[in-house]
Amino acid sequence: MAMSDITRIGAAALTGPLERPEIGPAAGAPGASFGDLFKKAINDTSNLQDNSKDMIAAYLRGEPVELHQVMAASEEASISLELLVELRNKLTTTYSTLMNIQ
To answer: Residue 101: how many CB atoms within 10 A of its CB?
Structure first.
């Protein structure tokens, strides 16, 4: 592949508009508050943990569930919980900092 081919590919990739992820209220429901988004995160984490428990139970009962599906569901629930705990820790630290400022 010649250098001109690489340059052409790079230029073609940059000609389209850049897509930006939605941030703020537009990311969730219209007018969603931080509390609503936090409740949704807690509910989603709980649902992922319930799904993981159900898949583990189904696997142990001998139902046709693949081990990799069980492990993926378990890891997804674990990562979601870790993210939620870190978010809580960050919010607690921020609150403490704000209270010390006053």
So the answer is: 6
Write the pLDDT tens digit of every residue in 16-51.
454 544 545 555 556 788 889 989 999 999 999 999
Contact 64, 55 (CB under 8 A): no
8: in domain: no
**What whole-number distance in Å separates Cα of residue 16 and Cα of residue 30?**
28
Query: CA-CA distances (angstroms) from residue 94 to 22, 24, 31, 83, 100?
Result: 24, 19, 24, 16, 10
Has residue 89 been placed in a domain?
A: yes
**DSSP code, position 36:** H
Classify residue 16: in a domain, yes or no.
no
If we measure between CA atoms, which residue out of 43, 37, 47 comes closest to residue 73?
47
pTM for the whole structure: 0.64
Q: How many separate domains does the chain show?
A: 1
Provide the domain limits for residue 45.
Answer: 33-102
Q: What does the radius of gyration of the chain's CA atoms come to, in whole angstroms?
A: 22
Q: In 31-66, which residue ranges form alpha helices assigned H by DSSP? A: 34-61
